[in-house]
């Protein structure tokens, strides 16, 4: 899909995004928002989040999430207290699986670790069942192959089996069984998968790997070598534009269910704040996926999440 055909999705391609200052916040909001726990390395205690009786395993999940999935960590903080521990455990488990690929040099070792985690899940259900359902659809072993996705649909299917599944489980921990919420979770998970693929491109490129969908690259005459040498040519940015537009459409579809989704489910979908933030940033830099600003952490993200939570929106 050429960039020119997608103007209706994004609107005019010009920088400038309305600021948060146009929204009126309730009294004391700023002070409350900035009391959210800080990112890893701050040295701040997690006791306030996990509670005074938190076990060592709870703290491990918290710290792992703070270091490896900070946005997921912030979103989990805004879940109801009774569901927070389960969400931390689910996301920490997802991080453990996600780290397998980057922590091994040989596929065989990676497959052994994936088998270990599969057996671990079986052991949990057979010998020591948890209080909440924590089964997660494990990453498909084919992901250990260093191959690009053949097309955007393959990437979306992978995102459905990982990111969306994680959201389905989060909904379960909230006690929600709703078809509209499931539809929204499916689209948000796919948007998350596409954005994650985009965000990880500079990192993968540093390791001589490219996972962007081959069909979109071929459509614009772009090779993997173009991304490895960090090309800023227009056709390279058109590939990024098409993928970002697809993620944007998934967010739009997810929000079309807003009036039908139970309000209780909204905290599970706060990841949309971080996704939209990235999509706006990449639009501002004209879809230059290697722009340094895209690698900087948004220090206002905790506040943005709190505002969205307070407004009962996703």
UniProtKB/TrEMBL annotation:
It comes from the Eukaryota. InterPro entries: Isoprenoid_synthase_dom_sf, Squ/phyt_synthse. Transmembrane segments: none annotated. The keyword Transit peptide applies. Its main location: mitochondrion. The gene is NDUFAF6. GO terms for cellular component: mitochondrial inner membrane. This is NADH dehydrogenase (ubiquinone) complex I, assembly factor 6. Involved in the assembly of mitochondrial NADH:ubiquinone oxidoreductase complex (complex I) at early stages. May play a role in the biogenesis of complex I subunit MT-ND1. Keywords: Membrane, Mitochondrion, Mitochondrion inner membrane, Transit peptide. The keyword DNA-binding does not apply. One of its GO terms (biological process) is mitochondrial respiratory chain complex I assembly. It holds the Pfam family SQS_PSY. It is found in: Mitochondrion inner membrane. Belongs to the NDUFAF6 family.
